[in-house]
Model the fold of this input.
Amino acid sequence: MAILMEKKISIDRTIAANNDVFGALARPTRRRIVELLNKKQLNVEQIRSRLKKLGYKKSVTTIRHHIEILKDSGLIEITKIEESQGAITKYYGSSTRLLDFLSPSDFDEDYSKIISKTTLKLAKVIGPILKNFPKTRKIQQINYNNYIVMEIINRSLTNLLEKK
Done:
């Protein structure tokens, strides 16, 4: 048997999320809702109106369904509740910013030196964090530890990029 093609695959990126988040973001409408709520607190009717302007014609019931899924995943939350003449209006917001872009095809070539330098600098930061975890050979525990480190770095980078 002749090998016609073979390629070694190495991990060059990690996406840290749970199944609820992946499921919630599987629908374009939900991704758009998270993007809208990252910028502003909105109620269901305001979300429906803004989605309509973006070409998403959804009923209020459908929007409420999407909101429940996003709330359950932790991507959005209730930020304000108003009462007016006996009616309750909930406003939602998101502390998650989605960056929905494709990397350019020449990304590795253009940024390999910066990636190498940044990797060396991050090793000095991550080393002390990893020392907080007990040594283990169990893959599940190693993956969980890596997830925690990714969350720490992600939130730290977000703080820097958002200038908190």
About this structure: Residues 19-93 form a domain with the Arc Repressor Mutant, subunit A fold (CATH 1.10.10.10). The helical segments are 19-24, 28-39, 44-53, 60-73, 107-130, 139-161.
